[in-house]
Amino acid sequence: MPKLLKKIGYVAIIMISASGFQMASNLILGRELTKEEYGIFSLIRKIIQFSSWILVFGTDVGLIRLFNRSITKYNWKKFLNRMLLYSFFLSVIPLLIFLRAYSLSNIQIISTVLIIFITITLILGNGIFRIQNKYNLAQFVISGVRYLFFVCLVILWFTNCVTLNNSILVFTLSYLIFGLLCIYYLNAIPNGRNFIPLKDVIKESSEFYFITIVTVSLIVADTFIVAKYFAYEYVGIYAAVSILPVTVFNLAGSSIGQVLMPSLAKGEINNFQKVIYISIGIALILYILFNFIGEDLLHYTFNSKYDGNSNLFYIFICMGITQYFSNIIHFSIGGISTKESQKYFLLSTIILTVLYLLLINYLIITHIITNITSVAIITVLVWVIRDFMGIYLIIKSRKKWIKS
């Protein structure tokens, strides 16, 4: 357990510092861009997040589950090149869907495609580094973009050049540099001769992959809905007010989960109950903290630009808590659950997501919902239901895991 806590601590430091720089980046963007421009930038980020996780096909998790000790005996470079090639061509599909739904300029489209491709490289690299127990490096290559993007934004800010197009350009440049860094560090890992069948990797993580996709769909759905039915200005408000509580809670949950999944898969955790207590304790501390100083942080972060959204802010605290536990549940499922259990959870989550999308679209179209606060409330309720479904699955899988 101390070894696990040490790993979580190192990963958390990298993620917390990277998140701090992202907060600072959002401060600059939120202050310098109009609410509408900030909404467009936030929408592009969600498109990248959603598309990249779809196109990686769960192969990062598949590699961890198949080669949880070492990957150096296998020809992982050939596997990585094939995955990037397939992903590049398939990235056209989600892009066309989003182009039909939203109006984006040419520079925004080109940057979005390029960043999606680079993000897939970072996700796969993260998985390979984690297999080799290089947790710090794994988190650095995928979180370091935020450091560099902040530096670029500061330069733009000092030169009075913070515009939407300039922000997107330096965002793209940041990803490009870290994509190259990821490839550089990957080349230091020995490459073997044994062939890695793509079919086997995808099959190994298929259920977990679809669970991830449905989870990411829930994460981004509310933003896409606000962008579709409300003006981009409201997307900016929704993103700005949610960024503090949702990001911090997700950060904490991901820090635990990133280490938890491979540790569970390798059988390194004997006292799972202690992990539960630690997770609940962290959630309580963050909840108390945000209730005391959350609104003041929002006020000073954006220089009172997004004041007057107190109700929305406290709803996002609740959303942050539900997503915090969802992260931990998600990675725990990947580490200990059977394929049969994952299929059950996948089916339940798909049904929940479809019902959520149908319901919220119906409520908006019929004008029962007329504001973004109501969208946030319904989204929180859906996350609560999903968390309870995940907890049930973990309890069930844990019993089988202990017996085996």
First-residue to last-residue Cα separation: 21 Å
N to C succession of SSEs: HHHHHHHHHHHHHH
Low-pLDDT runs: none
Structural class: mainly alpha
Evaluate the radius of gyration.
20 Å
What composes the largest sheet? none
The number of distinct structural domains comes to 1
The coarse overall form would be: globular
Number of E strands: 0
Count of separate DSSP helical elements: 14
Strand content: under 5%
As a percent range, the share of helical residues equals: over 70%
User: Mean of residue pLDDT?
Assistant: 82
Question: How would you briefly describe this protein structure?
Answer:
This protein is mainly α and 404 residues long.
Please characterize this protein's 3D structure.
This protein has 404 residues and is mostly helical. It has one domain. It contains 14 helices and no strands. The protein has helices spanning 2-32, 35-55, 59-66, 76-90, 92-101, 106-131, 135-158, 164-186, 198-229, 232-265, 272-301, 310-336, 339-365, 372-403. Helix 2 (35-55) runs parallel beside helix 10 and helix 9 packs antiparallel against helix 14. The relative contact order is 0.13.
